[in-house]
Amino acid sequence: MATSEVSARSKPKSVTLDDERVLPDSADRATFLAHLARYEFVLPMIKPCNDVLETACGAGYGTHRISQHAHSVVAIDYSPLALTYARERYAAPNLHYLQMDCHRLAFANAAFDLVVSFEVFEHLERPHEYAAECARVLRPGGRLVLSTPNRAAWELHMSSIQQEYEFHSSMVNVDELRACLQPQFSSVQLYGQRRRGGQLYSLLRALDPWNLRLRLFPPKARGQLQRQMGVATPEQKQTGAWVFSKSQLRQCNHFVAVCTR
Known about the structure:
By secondary structure, the protein is α/β, with parallel strands linked by helices. The protein contains 9 helices and 8 strands. It has an 8-stranded mixed beta sheet with strand order 3-2-1-4-5-8-6-7. Strand 1 (51-55), helix 2 (61-67) and strand 2 form a beta-alpha-beta unit.
């Protein structure tokens, strides 16, 4: 596959609220905290005068955090179930929820200072079209902050636990993500999100750009090694268990792209 293209496949329709979304009371505490950490990452970028768009807002818990820092927030999702959940639990005077398809944003050009897009890209069948729409609705100098799983690590992990996830239709590696975003933005900075650990853990990750740890060690053994190396665990129940770094992108769990219009 050429790096300028993203291979997308069709996916089933979302039926329940949590089949494509993470909820605050999810049993998978680690995944929820990883999501929450991405909101903590973006909050310092928001100014009180900013108008913000969040695409595929899901349950709305992160959207509400954004609304506490911004002038106005518009949050969209294609699921009426998600929007009902968000409106009932995470309402705010400066926050508006709308049902909308991310591929066709029903907003004027240059309508927002910031677009937040967490764990959306991989669910879309036309990600290039989506990236162009995000760029279109941003004001000059505005930013898109987008996260998506690292396909190189994701596929190895899912294979190791013998599971599949049918709702991801556009998974990318670091080169494919950069090639998709760069034509639309003047600047694209990529960060990798990974668990926080000690110096030895960081060194071993740096020496493993081919993700051999995911190939050679089963999940239980990986967990034991991480605990021995001081890796932060979900049981700590804090978003500080994750690091965002411009290094070790090929080994990270998720990419976070900060793109300037």
